[in-house]
C-alpha cells in the first residue's frame, strides 16, 4: 500500500503577477483511488487521480501546503513556495 503526491503547478520558487494561482497535481501509488487531498486546509476534489484548486495569494512570499491522506494512513505532503509580485 503506497501513496505519493506530485504537485505539477505552480513550480516551487515561482513568481507570479496574479493574486490567484491554480495548484494542480496528481496522486500515485496503490492507495490513490481512496485518497483525499487538502490544499491549505481546504478539501480539494480528486478525479482520475488528479487534483486542482485555485489558491488566493498575499503580496510577497506564500507557502502552499498540499497534503494527501489515505485510509491506510499514508500522509504524503508537499510545500510549494510562490511569490506574488503584482504588476505596477
Q: Which fold name corresponds to the CATH topology?
A: Immunoglobulin-like
Per CATH, the superfamily is: Immunoglobulins
Q: Terminal Cα separation, in Å?
A: 49 Å
Q: Overall mean pLDDT score?
A: 96
Architecture, according to CATH?
Sandwich
Encode the helix/strand succession as letters.
EEEEEEEEE
Give the tally of structural domains.
Answer: 1
As a whole number of angstroms, the C-alpha radius of gyration is 14 Å
Structural class: mainly beta
Unreliable stretches (pLDDT < 50, length at least 5) are: none
**Strand composition percent:** over 45%
| Total number of beta strands | 9
Helix share bin: under 10%
The count of helical stretches stands at 0
In short:
The chain has 88 residues and is an all-beta fold. The protein has strands at residues 4-9, 14-16, 20-28, 36-39, 42-44, 46-47, 50-56, 60-69, 77-84. It starts with a strand and ends with a strand.
What does this structure look like?
- The chain is mainly beta and 88 residues long.
- 0% of the residues lie in helices and 59% in strands.
- It is built from no helices and nine strands.
- A hairpin with a 2-residue loop joins β6 and β7.
- 20% of the residues are buried.
- The mean pLDDT is 96.
List the helices and strands and how they pair.
Layout: E1 4-9, E2 14-16, E3 20-28, E4 36-39, E5 42-44, E6 46-47, E7 50-56, E8 60-69, E9 77-84
Parallel strand pairs: 2-9
Antiparallel strand pairs: 1-3, 3-7, 4-5, 4-8, 6-7, 8-9
